[in-house]
Design goal:
The chain is mainly alpha-helical. It is built from 15 helices and 2 strands. The longest helix is centred in the last third of the chain and has 28 residues. It is flat.
Length: 313
């Protein structure tokens, strides 16, 4: 870490503000090797906690810098280790609040962009998202405002990014606990002047959990990726020779080697099976709807969607 980087951050913290020129200077001083160190990341977080009103330039830098450290600070890139996840949680919790312009967007971006993150971080981000949607106020980095009285368009965007993110419970799909978060938020705000997008998100999200298909190998753990990268690095030449020989001498063998034949139900059959709401899922749905003591407009929209998709009037 350069002296200039630390000095700029120290001055910004003392002034409780940072100019666009200082942010530009931080960028120049902090990424000489295109990576953010732990010491630099902690200075960036300390500066964030000191700044009273983060600007767009600072918010962009903050999110980019901390994302770079958490996801690219160690191999393999695109994954957060357990240590990095715990560090991030500790930094966010350090001042007892979550800034919607910086920390909330950082957590959202990491779940959205990471290949995978530890379960502790998934749970933390989902909890922060729920709390901020219901109680948070202030501008968001993606535009719009958090509202403590209703679900805004900006909050819908944040929820969609977290729930359908690559590092969420089920990438591009919705898990049971994520569907339950949607139900809890809906029950808390059902009678309020919510953004029209919220009903769409609620129906799509819960409907996806009940009827959507999520491949069991949609994510790979950081530990498994490290093993695979080490294997390829140790055997690169042998693997290349083997694959080339196989393609040249037995071009039809790949189907057998990689399980193309006799692999059980195809994707179409799996998707069709998942689209049916089974007894366990129906019982779960009944319990969720009963929690509020009434079938509200959001529940009705969900039930109509399920009936249309399943062909049950």
């Amino acid at each position: 870490m350069s002296f200039e980087f630390a000095e700029i951050a120290r001055n910004a913290a003392a002034d409780r503000s940072i100019t666009a020129e200082e942010v530009l200077a931080l960028r120049g001083a902090g990424w000489a090797d295109s990576r953010m160190s732990r010491e630099e990341a902690e200075i960036v977080f300390a500066t964030q906690h000191a700044i009273e009103k983060p600007s767009r330039e600072w918010s962009d830098f903050f999110v980019e810098a901390i994302q770079n450290y958490v996801l690219n600070g160690s191999d393999p890139h695109g994954f957060a280790s357990a240590e990095e996840a715990n560090w991030l949680i500790g930094q966010v919790e350090a001042d007892g609040k979550v800034c919607s312009m910086t920390e909330l967007d950082l957590l959202t971006r990491i779940i959205e962009r990471a290949q995978n993150v530890p379960e502790t971080l998934k749970t933390f981000v989902l909890g922060v998202m729920e709390r901020e949607v219901l109680e948070g106020t202030g501008p968001t980095r993606c535009g719009g405002e958090l509202s403590g009285t209703h679900v805004s368009e900006a909050e819908c965007r944040i929820m969609r990014r977290v729930i359908f993110g690559q590092a969420s419970d089920r990438p591009a799909a919705v898990s049971r606990r994520e569907a339950e978060v949607l139900f809890r938020i809906k029950n808390a705000v059902a009678g309020n002047d919510n953004a029209p997008e919220f009903e769409r998100l609620f129906v799509q999200g819960v409907g996806n959990y009940l009827m959507g298909f999520a491949h069991s190998s949609g994510q790979i753990s950081r530990e498994r990726m490290l093993e695979l990268e080490a294997f390829v690095a140790d055997n690169k030449a042998d693997i290349g020779r083997f694959m080339g020989s196989m393609a040249k001498n037995a071009p039809n063998a790949f189907g057998v080697v990689f399980g193309k034949k006799n692999e059980g139900p195809g994707r179409a059959e799996q998707v069709a099976a998942e689209a049916e709401v089974n007894g366990i899922e129906q019982a779960w749905l009944d319990e969720q709807i009963a929690t509020s003591g009434e079938v509200d407009a959001y529940d009705k929209a969900l039930l109509e969607f399920i009936a249309e998709e399943t062909g049950i009037a």
